[in-house]
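Weekly modeling sync, notes
Attendees: S.R. (lead), two postdocs, one rotation student

Agenda item 3: backlog of single-chain predictions. S.R. asked that every request posted to the team notebook include the full sequence so nobody has to chase files. The rotation student volunteered to paste the first one in as an example of the format we agreed on. Action items at the bottom.

Example entry:
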Amino acid sequence: MTAPRLLSRFARTRTRLALSLGLLLALVAAPLPWWLGTDEPHNLAAPAAPAVPRDEAAARAEAIRTGREVLVETATSETSLTWALPDGKLRTTIHAIPQRTKNAAGQWVPIDITLTRGEKTPSGLDIRPTNPPSPVRFSRGGTADDATETLVAEVDVEGHTITYTWPGPLPEPVLDGARALYPEVLPGVDLLVVARDAGGFGQLLIVKNRSAATIEAVRRVSYGLRSKTAVFRHDPDTGGVRVVDPIDGHEIASIPTPFAWDSAGRDPETPDAAPRTSVATPTDVLRLSGLNGVEPGARHAPMPTRLDGDGTGDARLHLDAAATGLLTEADVRFPVFLDPTLYGDTLAWATVYKQHPNTNTYNGTNFNNGTTVARVGYEKDTPLLTRSFWRMRFSTGLSGATVSEVTFKVLNNHSYSCAARPITVALTGAISSGTTWKKQPTWITDQETKSFAHGYNNNCKDDYVSFDVKNAVESAITNGWSNITLGMYAEDESDTQTWRKFEVAKSELRVTYNRPPKEPTDGTTSPGGACAIGGNGITIAKTNITLSARATDPDGSGDLKGLRFRF
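Predicted structure, as returned to the notebook:
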């Protein structure tokens, strides 16, 4: 196609009209919002759900009309929310662990792991969380005294059902929030199970005293593992167990390295108070300091394990608590805690320990009352040196997007003191169920270092810290990654003032972005016909020329300000 280099005023006018008409048609074709209310950001549960969820076009139209941020409801997932902003941009927030789940009506509701008793079922697994990230069921107890095995817990993960069994009877439990306590499952031993906010469940044996009968009872404890569709594989390096789909080899869940620890640690909630060690009543047991996991000053060690039935769907996990020395050494403070835990295959997070370089703590370790706590820095009392990683799903739909602001926001809920110390966030390689101190992901690029201390006392209360991680997200967009992993470490890993804890459930990656328009299509001239590269074109006399093309923008037609034609 050949054409004059200059357009007459009338031809330019016709060009503008053609383009304007195309944009107008695009706007008319865009779906109108079905629900004209407004949302405050990060308050998904407050408004009533519309009959038809707002898609991106409807949310953008409403944001521009009202000047307020509007939730793109069709983009909501367990771990992310997307908001249309009044300036035409979008903002997506991403969490490492689920924040919401769908109820029976198919509506998104907040995660709620509070346990309730349901109607009796033949399996006896009648205690369930209200709105867990994945279905979990616990035993109602009350089994016969001569029972040799009892179903204690069951979880559904990716279409597979995984069952834990206890080698004996279980009494009726005492419920407390996300926890169910089964008293005296062995002489001087209570069993505690907990629904976890990250999915799966924790399981903890509380060894209440050092009597000969008690020590003998827990010297070697075992649990049954069953699944009709998955198999269990022992990890000889970490002592943990991988739960695997036998057809494609995909890991669907995992049991990290089991730990044992005592009650000698300093409770971070009451650092100046003596540890709570009374076990006189179930209420006392549920208040034990050690239920928070390993704390500064506690004796602790990973437990050696053995798996009978390795590679099958019917296995038995044996824990060698005696090998830790925590059952017999004179300076151990009872109660002592033993914790095999089952995690679903969420992308999630990991904490690694230098003092236990082969320990697998994917998705955390220790009990922690159902919450997930990442640890960073060094504390000399135990001693313990840790680093933590957050791995989050990342949309490949952001390919080509221009990022204007990115922050990684974490809640620091405990520090060794109120003394601020520098902590760095970096882009790293991916984590897995095999992540340990010796097998850390690659530390790729430091993002930002900040000095802070929160969560020690009223002088430095729990607070959020935000890190600029724009470079990491731009790398993810450029390379088309479906996941992004951020690691955190203390700048001085020999300074005990660097010890920090972070609440994983409240960690958030926030990305504000705009996607470029797509390449225009269907270019034509009148006269002349379809535009094509090469060829001889046609010759025309003095006449008006109309240029037209079809243009689209993934962020909506409102972002299309015009087209530039070259010929």
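Discussion: group reviewed the output briefly. The longest strand covers residues 500-514.
Action items: rotation student to repeat for the remaining queue; S.R. to check formatting next week.
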